[in-house]
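Q: Here's a chain of 87 amino acids. Please give me its 3D structure as tokens.
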Amino acid sequence: MAVTIDATAGGASANSYLTLTAADAYVDAMIENADVTAWASATNDQKNRALAYATQRLDRERFLGARATDTQALQWPRTGVRKPDTY
């Protein structure tokens, strides 16, 4: 079954922090290496699976603050997180 990405910030069914289009643009701006080559040769479904897996991996981390809403699926956006060098 193909993976569909939902990168809606704060969305109740979000499963990625990036859309495939945004991820492609990010990778296109990187210096050519084995990872960039592998991304370029991957299918859209493989890329979507990588985005979903990376999001799951990030969401296993513990973060300061709290989720912005009770209904959001992912750890971000958050409230109560200070920016560095601010009070």
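Q: Can you summarize the key feature?
A: The first helix runs from residue 20 to 28.
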